[in-house]
Amino acid sequence: MKVWGVSVSYYTGKLEAYLRYKGIPYEMEHPFADQARIRDGAGAIQVPIIERDDGRWMSDSTPIIRHLETEFPERTVLPSDPVVRFIALLIEDYADEWLWRCAMHYRWSYEHDRELLSRILADEITTHLPLPRFVRRYLVKRRQRGRFVINDGVTEGTREHVEIGYFNAMRSMLTMLEDRPYLLGNTPSIADIGMMGPMLRHFSQDPTPAAIMRNDWPAITEWVARVWNAHATAGETSFLDEVPDDAAAILQEIAETHMVQLKENAIAHGRGQLRFEMSVQGCDYKNLPVSRYRVYCLERLREAFDILSTDHKEKVMSLLPYPECSLIWDPAVSANSNYDVDRQAPFNKSINVL
Ligand SMILES: N[C@@H](CCC(=O)N[C@@H](CS)C(=O)NCC(=O)O)C(=O)O
Question: Is residue 14 part of a domain?
């Protein structure tokens, strides 16, 4: 299969970590030269996109991986215990959708990171533009910082809280990795693959967060390398058969951050708003863009919860004793993205997250 991707991309890195672990061969190409063809096949121009040999296109890393798990069921990344599996999917969603702002902030707010990354991106994705490289770099910097930092609520007032998100993620992962090599067992699960989105291409590679990780959190640097080097052929899968106590910190962080954002975003989307506000851990974010895709994420989380047995639902609820988490099982907030209504994902026409 062909992966249309970018070497420094969050979700491309997540997908590559999965494909490498599973031993699924792929070739990588950079997508932006032939945009019309990609838009026609996959919907939105985003990465990663997979083009299959049979002409089908796949978008969105989460449904892509869920689908590939059915095609390549050996050495699954989905834990067999339904409660552990649900929690793994929740961690994946937090990694995909909450840590994104923090990762984009480190990349585009710090000058050194911005200069390096704009050069890499200008060379990978803008070579089709008949402009000198310094202009292409300028355009990349202006677009990325404008769209994913300034437009996404990173201000003087929120900046410190945005950065704390990185530390809270590493701190809670570290607790889980004290006794085992991967977050939920002795082999990588979808929780590890999801956390590779922010941790691989952004936090462990962009100069500013990478220095922090390398100097102060080397066990996370080691985990990134471990997941990247994991091979599905060596041994059997081995997941925990219950959610460990050491997951409490990450679950609380998810409740206080990602759940609040999912809720306020869904409410605003339901009212037809384009922007919304939220207060997260005492920090006020204003004028955030409403994301239809994240309403869809909430729908999928609810669906993953709904299919659990009553016992398993109770267990999940007891692991998430935070008022913010009732969003998952209480339909008081409606989630109706109208995205992928006929459930074709990952073979549907995709939309951008922001
Ligand atoms: N939901 C998608 C998100 C993909 C995505 O947003 N990728 C970023 C790069 S990491 C992108 O292509 N953004 C589009 C843009 O910058 O225009 C997934 O999980 O794959």
Answer: yes
* Cα(11) to centroid(ligand 1), Å: 6
Give start and end residues of each alpha helix (H) in 98-217.
99-109, 111-125, 133-145, 159-177, 190-198, 207-216
Question: Cα dist. 215→160, 190, 204, 212 in Å?
Answer: 20, 27, 11, 5
pTM higher than 0.90: yes
298 token code pair: 């909430």
Residue 149 structure tokens: 């930092």
Domain presence at residue 30: yes
15 CA closest ligand 1 atom index: 20
Span 276-292, pLDDT tens digits: 999 999 999 999 999 99
Domain that holds residue 12: 2-71
Dist CA 268 CA 258 (whole Å): 15
Alpha carbon nearest to ligand 1 atom 17, residue: 46
Q: And the tokens for 50?
A: 């997979």
Q: Let me know if residue 110 belongs to a domain.
A: no
* CATH number of 34's domain: 3.40.30.10
d(CA 304, CA 183): 20
pLDDT in tens, 22-65: 999 999 998 776 788 999 999 999 999 999 999 999 999 999 99
Q: Would 34 be classed as within a structural domain?
A: yes
Domain count, the chain: 1
The DSSP annotation for 283-327 comes to: EEEEEEEP-HHHHHHHHHHHHHHHTS-HHHHHHHHHH--SGGGHH
Query: Which atom of ligand 1 is the closest one to the Cα of 143?
Result: 16
Q: How far is the CA of 96 from the centre of ligand 1 (A)?
A: 10
Helix (H) or strand (E) holding 350: none
Q: Is 280 helix (H, G, I), strand (E, B) or coil?
A: strand
